[in-house]
């Protein structure tokens, strides 16, 4: 797979970050307030060095229930300190008062009238320490980060999506071609999502390179692009006039190929068609081509020579992609693991 390219061409940014509980903190942002009454108990959970799946398995065993009966909004990094919301039947409220685990802490509980489902979050707040940064570099990093926040960040799928060595991409391609049979429905769905994500990233890369060459580093809009608004659903966007783009009311989207999805037209379709599999029987989607990191805050520690950068991203977006755009280079799982 080709490198992810970015709108800004930055040089000499050689900071280091690692995914560990101290340097990488993620807080899930819920969709709104909880009712305070209802048949479900929402648990605000803090976990350390643990996947969401493993954390859910711990609760399932403690409550003597199945993992399928525990609701969650999104998957959070393992090598980090993260908070997120899960939900269980309200009848477990008393039992949970005795819950103790070395890597999991219940921050707070709320009664609610609905179970939490995948996607029931507004976004995530990140706090990441960038190491080996001097005070001049700290100023440059903050300046670049704020410029990206203003002009937009290409919404690539990060390296985490594709597996440590790219084996998942190879398996996905073999399965789609019919050379590999996968019986497990969850694995099959996962590999199809990787197949779609690979096409999306390659499409976005071409559009970014084109934008650098023709539009001074700002994302180049094309006739026939498909946009979404804040209130529109990704599965049902329409082609909309461009006049609201500058105000961020409308965001251009890219294709996650499949059935029953609106496709671009005109000159936008010429590029999109190269990264489309119209014979794929799985459902297709559209994904924002750009996102806008918000509430960017930087705090420099001169003594420890690290810069803490905090920012908020919408759901489904990758903090590591933002850091790549700042540094002007791609990272892999090997680059960010703690030593």
CATH class of the largest domain: Alpha Beta
Shape: globular
The radius of gyration computed from the alpha-carbon positions, rounded to a whole number of angstroms, is: 21 Å
Instruction: Give the percentage of residues in beta strands.
Output: 15-25%
How would you summarize what this structure contains?
The chain is α+β, with helices and mostly antiparallel strands and 339 residues long. Helix content is 28%, strand content 24%.
Describe the structure.
It is built from 8 helices and 13 strands. Helices cover 28% and strands 24% of the residues. The chain is of the alpha+beta class and 339 residues long. Helix 4 crosses helix 5. Strand 12 and strand 13 form a beta hairpin. The mean pLDDT is 90. It folds into 3 domains: 83 residues; 88 residues, Pseudouridine synthase, CATH 3.30.2350.20; 133 residues, TruD, insertion domain (Pseudouridine synthase), CATH 3.30.2340. The strands form 3 sheets. Strands 1, 2, 3, 4, 5, 6, 12 and 13 form an 8-stranded mixed sheet that branches.
Notable features of this structure?
339 residues; alpha+beta; Pseudouridine synthase; 3 domains; eight-stranded mixed β-sheet; 24% strand; globular
Fold topology:
Elements: E1 24-30, E2 40-48, H1 52-63, E3 71-72, E4 81-89, H2 93-96, E5 104-112, E6 121-131, H3 135-151, E7 153-154, H4 167-177, H5 185-214, E8 227-229, E9 250-256, H6 266-272, E10 285-288, E11 290-291, E12 294-301, E13 306-314, H7 319-327, H8 333-336
Parallel strand pairs: 1-4
Antiparallel strand pairs: 1-6, 2-4, 2-5, 3-4, 6-13, 7-11, 8-9, 9-10, 12-13
Helix pairs in contact: 3-7, 4-5
């Amino acid at each position: 797979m080709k490198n992810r390219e970015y709108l800004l061409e930055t040089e000499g940014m050689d900071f280091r970050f690692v995914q560990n509980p101290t340097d990488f903190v993620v807080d899930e942002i819920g969709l709104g307030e909880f009712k305070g009454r209802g048949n479900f108990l929402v648990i605000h959970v803090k976990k350390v060095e643990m996947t969401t799946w493993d954390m859910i398995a711990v609760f399932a065993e403690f409550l003597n229930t199945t993992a399928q009966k525990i609701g969650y909004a999104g998957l959070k990094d393992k090598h980090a300190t993260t908070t997120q919301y899960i939900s269980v039947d309200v009848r477990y409220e008393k039992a949970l008062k005795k819950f103790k685990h070395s890597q999991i802490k219940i921050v707070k509980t709320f009664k609610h009238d609905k179970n939490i489902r995948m996607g029931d979050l507004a976004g995530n707040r990140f706090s990441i320490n960038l190491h080996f940064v001097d005070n001049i570099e700290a100023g440059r990093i903050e300046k670049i980060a704020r410029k990206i926040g203003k002009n937009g960040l290409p919404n690539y799928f990060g390296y985490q999506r594709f597996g440590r060595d790219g084996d998942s991409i190879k398996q996905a391609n073999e399965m789609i071609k019919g050379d590999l049979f996968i019986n497990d429905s969850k694995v099959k769905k996962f590999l199809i999502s990787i197949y779609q994500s690979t096409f999306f990233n390659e499409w976005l890369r071409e559009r970014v390179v084109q934008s650098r060459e023709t539009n001074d580093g700002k994302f180049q809009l094309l006739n026939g692009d498909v946009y979404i608004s804040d209130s529109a659903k990704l599965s049902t966007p329409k082609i909309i006039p461009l006049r609201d783009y500058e105000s961020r009311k409308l965001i251009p989207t890219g294709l996650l190929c499949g059935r029953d999805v609106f496709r671009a037209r005109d000159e936008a379709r010429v590029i999109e068609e190269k990264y489309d599999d119209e014979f794929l029987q799985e459902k297709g989607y559209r994904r924002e081509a750009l996102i806008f990191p918000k509430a960017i805050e930087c705090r420099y520690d001169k003594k420890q020579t690290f810069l803490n950068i905090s920012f908020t991203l919408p759901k489904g977006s990758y903090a590591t992609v933002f850091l790549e755009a700042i540094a002007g280079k791609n990272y892999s799982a090997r680059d960010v693991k703690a030593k």
